[in-house]
Amino acid sequence: MYRRCYTRYNNYTTTTDPTTTDPTTTDPTTTDPTTTDPTTEGDDDFCEDLILEEGDVCEGPLTDDNGNDFFEWDEYDEDVYLTDGSYQVQYVYTEDSLQLAATGINLSNIVISSILLFLSGIFYFTKSRKKRLLSAIRIVDSKDLEIVYKNVFKLKRQIEKTFKEEVNINLNLDLINPYGVHQNQVSDRIKKINNIAAELDYTKVAVINLVEQFNNSEEVLTKEIMLDSIKLISSGLFEINFTGEVITKSSEERYAKVKKLSKAKLRTQKKYSAKYTRLSLGFSSVLIFLGVGLGIYAMQQIHFTGVQHQASQEILSQIYQSNDNDSNFTATQAPKFNERILSIFNDVPVFETLADSFIANNTNTPIDYTPDVFGKLEIESIKLNQFIVSGTDEQSLEFGPGHYIQTAFPGAGGNVGIAGHRTTFGAPFANLDKVELGDELILTVGANKYHYEVDEVTIVEAVGGEYVLYNRGDDRLTLTTCHPKYSAKQRLIVTGILTKIESVN
Fold this sequence. Notes:
- It is built from 9 helices and 14 strands.
- By secondary structure, it is an alpha+beta fold.
- The protein folds into 3 domains: 90 residues, no CATH class; 167 residues, no CATH class; 181 residues, Beta Barrel (Sortase, Chain: A), CATH 2.40.260.
- β3 and β4 form a beta hairpin.
- α2 runs parallel beside α3, α2 runs antiparallel to α6 and α6 runs parallel beside α8.
- The longest helix has 60 residues.
- The protein is rod-shaped and about 130 Å long.
- The protein starts with a strand and ends with a strand.
């Protein structure tokens, strides 16, 4: 709640004839015992801690002296001025001034954030799982593929030694490539690697046996005979091709020595891979948890709060009916009534957690306290029938639409303001945007039923649009809610002028 305060600048001056004595004035040298120093102790307290601009002098609130009378209750300056020719009034907004109620949250942003976080978590989780799988495959490759490479080299060197010609041994990389392997095919791939290593080994043994056999029979072993013999025992996992280049150097001169992969390096790779995988899985799990949490929160705001609202309206209906015969509540008692409402809401939480909401909905009393019922609002064009509570704080609006306690009482010649949720807590004003000019708004308070005719439907900003609740010099009802739907960026305003008052039993 906010209070409007101002600085008054006295721009007027007075002139008198110095030769003329005003009979109403006294001798300035004479001290009037009934007067005191205009700067009293109370004024000193008032001026203490004020931040004055250059040229401003604080002598207490609104003095009659020429010059600027400066006072404010905080340091928040809106730079809004109003002048009538004699005074210039600067309005500032403090914690007691009227503001539009917070009748919603940005559910659209919450839902979008929830989806993005969840999908990001799934993406990183899948990616980390894939990296973990590939890492495991590479560690296996470091040990098993080393045997394949070694057997390829041994077979290549044996054939080149026999025929003195360059040989290429081609492997099917699709059989040993660690990328693109499905999770259920990892074991099959390892078996294929072992089969290739074994086939290379016994092919080398077969070549040695052929050479020995032909040497014993004193026959010449040709490339064609050897290749035909290998085809009989080969399963096609690799191919042997002769390049036609004659070898003139020994194997030691032609090939560099290969350093074996140490076990320490294997352990380092495995340790690094496990650490990275844990971090990646942890990060993805956090994203998934946040996404699911925001999704549950959005669902709770839309659906579960509706259950609470329905139970609250039933309680308000009972209170309203029990107070239906109370004729002592009049417009003159509204301020005291509002003060009593303010004393009820002292930051008492309704639902602190989602679990509390489930527990509360299973009890006869869905909430710990119950606000006073202000009246009943009916809008036939959108099938709205809601009990109104007094107050527009967060807790009050969970019961239903609330009356701005700073606005007028019906029939008192002012603007009656009512706020309601549009997407959460039963969304009583969900279809307020469908109200059209000329539609009837019926507000029942006490023993009177007030009929209003809608004459304006507009949209204002959430901050700065509170002017729609100011008095316009007529009897009217103004309804406010969030706009657009599932957002709290702006406010939808529906206002109507009083057309009829009737008594009800």
